[in-house]
Amino acid sequence: MNLWQALEPAQLITLSICIPFVGALLVIATGKRPNLREAVTLITAAILFSIVLAITDYTFLGTTLQLDVVELFPGLGISFNVEPLGVLFALVASFLWIVTSIYAIGYMRGHNEINQTRFFCCFALSISSVMGICFSGNLLTLFIFYEVLTLSTYPLVTHAGNDAAKQGGRVYLGILLSTSIAFLLFAILGTYALTGTLDFRAGGIFDDSHNKVVLSILLVLFCYGVGKAAIMPFHRWLPAAMVAPTPVSALLHAVAVVKAGVFSILKIVIYIFGIEGLKDLVTTDVMLYVGAATIVLSSSIAMTKDNLKARLAYSTVSQLSYIVVGALLASSIASAGAALHIATHAVGKITLFFCAGAIMVASHKKNISDMVGLGRKMPITFAAFTIGAISIIGLPPMAGTWSKWYLAIGALETDKFIIVAVLMVSSLLNIAYLLPIPIKAFFSKPVEGAEPWRWSQTEEAPLPILVALIITSGCCLALFFYLQPLVDLINLIPGVSTK
């Protein structure tokens, strides 16, 4: 924090959004010199993380960080306000940007990808928009940066430029833009018409004078309007986006897009409806069970996929709804579990995608059925995959244990025993579609005709890829034992507590 003490606290908000944007411009300027371009990316990511750490320190000290940029309408404009939930998301995104950049350097070079400058530029722009979402002070600001995130990630989804990439991009853009315009925008307009404000406030902005039927409709519009949360049936964009390079998949599934979706829903629940206010709405349980159905159905679909990235994509659809369910349980401890799952799922799922990309670069294999015995050639990669899988399943000693524990406690406190059953069934399905992958890779016989494996013949992916997946798999383990800082941050969120 000492590095930034000379600045006014509110100026850190401006820097957190502008630094990645400036980094994107510098990436373009240095595009013809790959080493310099990638150094710019890593330095920019490190600077952003240091800024977010300074913001985190101010948050723990109770310092208010607020910034009003411009008033667009009377009493309504673009404004930013730092609160603990946004800080949590910013910490996850800024830290994983560093790790993903390291990974992307190895992947993009090892796979001889085209348009690498455009890739790193759009990646930086997407992180800039994520910071805007994290620190948005009202729904208007959130909506603007939400749409910027969609547009800035579209070139990443269509990176390959082939027909499959273009089709995946159309689905991606079509679903995310249509849901935000058809549902989210109307929910925001309805909220403003009812309350005269779009500000995020502790306890929510609705009160007993507002019609519960209208609020119930608004809740549905918000849940489906935030298409990035991938609630069924508006989930197809996520598997469609798997045509993108693996670093993009990691960005979509762990760092930016999907987390922006579930973060937005959780923030709307806490700061627009209020956790207590949610209990009185008739559609709360309806959307709760839609989320529960998404968890089970997408896990079941994941089991049928032989393509590794497709299996992980449907796994993400399932895991996102853990956060949606946690928010809609209208429980303090369940909301804490949902917030924590943003972090624990991020490190677990990004590890799995890093491993999928490592396998692709080193062996050119995409299908799980072709990976039998591959663990003997790539022991580091498949060991990391095992760690990430155990975390996603929610077994100790991995990070995912704690978020699922708090979600289950929240479901028990609200007498939603069917949700407890859903969490248990989902974890069993997680075991069924994740653990057989490393087990077959390590313990099944290699493909017929393959040479006997020796350590001296190990063919792992390039070093930057291995460094990245070792870091994230280490985070899965570290967050099991050293979770308290995140718990302390979550306990600062109004109405949310792990106790």
TrEMBL record:
Sorted UniProt keywords: Cell membrane, Membrane, Transmembrane, Transmembrane helix
Membrane-spanning intervals of the chain: 12-30, 42-65, 85-107, 119-146, 171-192, 213-231, 251-274, 286-303, 323-343, 350-366, 378-396, 417-443, 463-483
Coiled-coil region: none
A Pfam family the protein falls into: Proton_antipo_M
Topological type in the membrane: Multi-pass membrane protein
UniProt superkingdom: Bacteria
One CC-aspect GO term: plasma membrane
Subcellular location: Cell membrane; Membrane
Domain NADH:quinone oxidoreductase/Mrp antiporter transmembrane: 136-429
Family classification: Belongs to the CPA3 antiporters (TC 2.A.63) subunit D family.
Protein's name in the database: Multicomponent Na+:H+ antiporter subunit D
Organism in which the protein naturally occurs: Amphritea japonica ATCC BAA-1530
High-level lineage: Bacteria, Pseudomonadati, Pseudomonadota, Gammaproteobacteria, Oceanospirillales
